[in-house]
Amino acid sequence: MRAGETTTMRTGRGRAVPWAVLGLWIAALVLVGPLAAKLGSVQHDKVTDYLPASADSTQVARIEEKLPGGETTELVLVYHRDGGLGAADRETAARQVAEITRRHKLIGGAPQGIPSKDGTTLMYPVASNEPGANEARRDELVTDVREIARGEGGLSVDVGGTGALATDSGAVYDSLGGPLLYTTVAVVAVLLILIYRSPVLWLVPLVVAGIADYLSMGAAYGLNQVFGTTVSGQSSGVMTILVFGAGTDYALLIVSRYREELRRFERPYEAMLAALRGCGPAVLASSGTVAAGLLCLLAADLNSSRGMGPLGTVGVLCALIAMMTLLPAILVLVGRRVFWPLVPAFGSTPKQRRSLFAAMGGSAGRRPLTVLASGAVLLGALALGSLNLPGPLKQEDSFVTKPESVVAMETVAKSYPGQGSQPIDVITPQGRADETLAAVRSTPGVAGAEKGRTGDGWTEISVFARSAPQSAGETAVIKALRDRLKGSYVGGDSAQQIDLEDTNARDTKIVVPLVLVSVLLILIVLLRSLVAPLLLVVAVVAVWGASLGIGGLLFEPVLGLKGTDPGLGLLSFVFLVALGVDYGIFLLHRMREESLAGAEPATAALTALRTTGGVIASAGLVLAATFAVLTNMGLVQLVQLGFVIAVGVLLDTFLVRTYLVTSASVALRRKVWWPGALSREPAPTGPPRQPETVGAP
Question: What local confidence, expressed as pLDDT, does residue 562 receive?
C-alpha cells in the first residue's frame, strides 16, 4: 500500500469514527430522553428515604402508613402575643380552628387549645389522615392550614409540627433541582472561560457535561425501576454535582494532553488517539476509584447514604463515558480552530514561560524532608479543629433560614418549659395494647399517653414526655421505652434523630475500611506499587481530617451553625478519599510515564508536577467550586457537606499534591515504586519527550 493510500485511509477514519460516535450519542439521547424526564416522578423525600433501614423509627413510619387512614400528618397551631393573649386573640384562634375543622377531616374532631402558664401562648395540636403518604396532598393540607391560621393586630400565628416540618424540608429539596443545576453550570462556565482563555473551547466540555447529566438522569430512573434504588433530593443533587465536577476534571486532563499531542501530530484524529492512550488509563482509574468508593455506601444501613452510592456512581460513569467518547469526537470534528486564539500548531514548541508549579516543585525538590514534615504538622494542627465541631444537629437547627415550622417549635419550647410538644410514637402488637399502654404510663419521664389507631395487627400509642423535644430528658425516655417494650417499636421525630446518630456511627465503622481497601487495590493495579498507593491514601485521609478541623473552627463561631449533621463525617470521607485520589493518580501516573521513559526519580517527579500542575490546579478549582454550590442551599447538612469537600479539594490540590506528594516522591526516589520493576532497576531509556509546560489547560 502506498503512502498516499495510507494517508487517505487515516483521513477517512478520522472523519468517519467521530461522526459515528456522534450518531450513537444522538440515538442514545433519543432513547434515554423519556426516562430522564421521569426522574422527578420517583424522587421522594419522605422520612423513610433518609432513616436507617432496620431502625425502630423506620419500622414505626412504615407501619403507620398501613394503619387506617394511612400516615398521620401532625400539626401544631401556635398563637402567641408577647404581652399576653387577650379575649379577642382567643376568639380569633377558636374561629380559625373551627374553620380548619370544617374544611378538613381531623382525627378526634375539633382540637382543644392548650394555654401556656404565662398566658402568652395557645397551642392547638392538629392531626389528619387525609394526605396519607401522599407528599403533595400533605403539602396542600399544610398550605391551606397556614392560609387560614393568620395573625391579626400583633398576634403571631405559626404552624409547626412534624407535618409542617416535612413540608418545609421538602420545599428546600424541591428547590435544589433548578437552582443547583443553573448555579453549577454558571460556575463551571466562568471557570472554564478563565482557564481556556478561548471564546469557544469552554463551551465544548460544558455541553458534554450537560449531556452526561441528562444521561445520568435516565440511568438513575432505570435503577429505581429495576432495583428500587432510593432517589431523594439530596442524592440527585449530589449526582448532578459529580457529573459536572468530575466530568469537567476529566475534560481538563484530556484537552490538555490533546493540545500537547497536536504539536506532535499533524492530524487531530491521530493526536486524540495519542492523548487518550496517554491519559486514558489515569482517567479510567480516577473514575474507578470514585465509583468504587461510592459503591461502598451500599454497605450502609442509612437509606439516604445507601441510595447516594448508586446514584453518585451513575453520575461519575456517565461523565466518564461522555468525556472519553463524545468530547474527543467533537474536538476532532471541529479541529485545531477550537483552541483559537491560542492554536497549537503542528511542529511548534510551546512558549517557555515561568511556571508557578515548576517553582513550587523546585522548593519541594531542594528540601523534600523539610517540606514533608512542615506539611504534615500543618495538616495535623488543622485536624485538631475537629474537636471543636458542634454537637449533633437538632431539627430546629437544620435550616439555614428558619421556616415557620421551626419558629413554631421554638415558641412552644419557650412557652411550655418542661413539657413535650411532639409525641413519641409507639407501635405495639394489637393484642398487647393495654399492657403496653400501662407500661408506657409507668415509665419515668412520661407525662401522658393514649391509644390511637389500630389495624393490620398493630396499635398506635402517642406518648408525651415531660421534657422538651430532643433534650437529654426526652432521649432518656425514648431509650427507657425501648428497653421496657420488647416486641414493640418506638419512633417519632426525636427517636429518628437518635437512630440517625447511632446508624451513622455504625456505618462509618463499616464503610470507611471498605473505601480504603477498594481505593488502595485500584491504585496498586494502576501504579504497580505498594508504596505510592499507600502514600496517596494516607495523604487523602490527612486532608479529610484537616478539612473537618477547619469546619470545626468555622461552623459555629463564624457561620453560626449550631450542630453537626451526623452523616458529615462518613459522606465527606467517601467523597474526599475517592475524589482526592484523582489528582494523585494524574500526578503519579505521569511520574511513572516519565520514569519509564528514562528520567531519574527526582526529575520524573518534578517534570510530572510541571506538566500536570496546571491541569490539577484547574481541575481542583472546578471541583471545589461545584461542591461549594451546596453551601448556598437551604439545609445545614448540605452546607456543611459542600464546605468540607470544597475545602478538602483545595487543600489536596494546592498543598498535598503540589508539595507533600512531590516531596515524598523525591525523598523516596525509586522506593516510591516498591516492589515494582521501577524500584529494582533503572528504567529503560525511551525516546526523549518534550513535555509541555502547563500553566493552564
Answer: 87
Q: How far, rounded to the nearest angstrom, does the alpha carbon of residue 336 sit from its chain's CA centroid?
A: 37
Residue tagged 395557645 (cell numbers):
122
**Of 402, 491, 393, nearest in space to 168 by CA:** 402
Query: Strands, DSSP E only, in 194-313?
Result: none
d(C-alpha 598, C-alpha 592), whole Å:
10
3-state secondary structure of 467: coil
DSSP 339-400: GTTS---TT--------HHHHHHHHHHHSHHHHHHHHHHHHHHHHGGGGG---BPPGGGSBS
CB 693 within 8 A of CB 611: yes
Non-local (6+) Cβ contacts of 637 within 8 A are 234, 393, 398, 565, 567, 568
Q: Measure Cα distances from 471 to 327, 484, 495 in Å.
A: 54, 20, 11
Whole-number pLDDT of residue 683: 45
Residue 65 grid coordinates: 402508613
Neighbour-count burial of 350, counting CB atoms closer than 10 A to its CB (0-12 exposed, 13-18 middle, 19+ buried): middle
Angle at 515 between CA 510 and CA 521, to 5 degrees: 130
Q: What is the C-alpha separation between 95 and 100, in angstroms, rounded?
A: 9
User: How many CB atoms sit inside 10 A of residue 1's CB?
Assistant: 7
Report CA-CA distances (Å) from 535 to 129, 509, 529, 584, 603.
57, 22, 10, 9, 19
Contacts of 620 (CB under 8 A, 6+ apart): 583, 649, 650, 652, 653, 654
Pull the grid cell for residue 246.
468530575
List % helix, strand, coil for the chain (3-state, nearest 5): 70, 10, 25
For residues 532 and 366, the answer to whether their CB atoms sit within 8 Å is no
Q: Which residues contact 312 (CB under 8 A, 6 or more apart)?
A: 235, 238, 239, 242, 290, 294, 297
Pairing mode, if any, of strands 424-429 and 446-455? unpaired
Q: What is the mean pLDDT of each run of 10 residues along the chain (697 residues)?
A: 46 74 92 88 75 85 79 87 91 93 86 89 88 82 92 88 84 70 84 85 92 94 89 85 89 88 90 89 85 91 87 94 94 90 79 60 72 89 93 82 87 76 85 92 90 88 83 89 92 86 90 92 86 90 95 92 89 88 79 80 80 80 87 86 93 84 84 80 49 42
CB 243 within 8 A of CB 216: yes
- Looking at residue 684, its amino acid is P
Q: How many CA atoms lie within 13 A of 688 on its CB side?
A: 1
Per the CB < 8 A criterion, the answer to whether 582 and 517 are in contact is: no
Using CB atoms within 10 Å of the CB of residue 76, give its burial: 0 to 12 exposed, 13 to 18 middle, 19+ buried: buried
Q: What is the DSSP string of 602-621?
A: HHHHHHHHHHHHHHHHHHHH
Residue 265 DSSP symbol:
-
Residue 687: helix, strand or coil by DSSP?
Answer: coil
Selection from 320, 316, 263, 327 nearest residue 292 by Cα: 316
Q: In the prediction, which pLDDT does 7 show?
A: 47
Burial 243-268 (b: 16+ CB within 10 A, else e): bbbbbbbbbbbbbbbbbbbbbbbebb
Q: Are the beta carbons of 50 and 40 closer than 8 angstroms?
A: no
CB distance 433 to 404 below 8 Å: no
Helix 303-321 vs helix 233-262: crossing angle, to nearest 10: 20
